[in-house]
Every structure is written in structure tokens, then in C-alpha cells.
């Protein structure tokens, strides 16, 4: 768990956004998890996006992430991918609240 994930968890509680759980497994055949999820919405806090060496930005890591998010879409999930800066600014929570209204 990252500092940004802890902050987002706090923001969810403060905004009284109910039902989101952390580290939710969404595939019966893979070990994939979402940082936060409540069917059919998931939020992934992409912490390694600004690091020089990150699993998320390496070729293989990027490919694995694409596989995960595409499989999630096939299963009906709507995934918001956010950065720690977007969590800190409150933008991630605003996007989530807008998506909740839409679904």
C-alpha cells in the first residue's frame, strides 16, 4: 500500500463514498487485484508513473498492465487510472464521483 492509496482511502471516507474495498481480486484465473473497487468501478493508483525504473513504465510491465486492464474491460469493469498527484489534488475523487453518477 502506498501513501497515495492511504490518502485516497481517507478521501473516500471523508466524502462518504461507500462500498469501495482495497485490494479486490477480480479474476478467477489470475492473481490480478484492483487498488480500490466496487462493482463495476475500479480505481488504480499508478504510483510508479514518474519513477525512472518502474514496473508500470517498462516495456514488459506496460504490456502486463494493458493485459490486466483489457481483461477487466472484457469482464465489465470501468477502471479509472490515476496518479498520486491526481489523488493529492482531489481530481481522482472528483472523477470517481462523476463516474458513480453515470453508472
Residue ranges: pLDDT <50 for 5 or more in a row? none
Main beta sheet: strand number and arrangement? 4 strands, mixed
Q: Report the end-to-end length measured between terminal Cα atoms.
A: 27 Å
Structural class: alpha+beta
Run of helices and strands: HEEEHEHH
Q: Radius of gyration, Cα only, in angstroms?
A: 13 Å
Helix share, percent: 40-55%
Q: What proportion strand?
A: 15-25%
Number of strands: 4
Tertiary shape: globular
Mean pLDDT, all residues:
92
Q: What's the helix count?
A: 4
In spatial order, strands of the major sheet run 1-2-3-4
Lay out the secondary structure.
Blueprint: H1 3-14, E1 21-25, E2 33-38, E3 41-45, H2 59-74, E4 78-82, H3 84-89, H4 91-102
Parallel strand pairs: 3-4
Antiparallel strand pairs: 1-2, 2-3
Describe this structure in words.
The chain is an alpha+beta fold. Helices cover about 45% and strands about 20% of the residues. It contains four helices and four strands, in the order αβββαβαα. Helix 2 links the parallel strand 3 and strand 4. The N and C termini lie far apart (about 25 Å). The model has no long low-confidence stretch (mean pLDDT about 90).
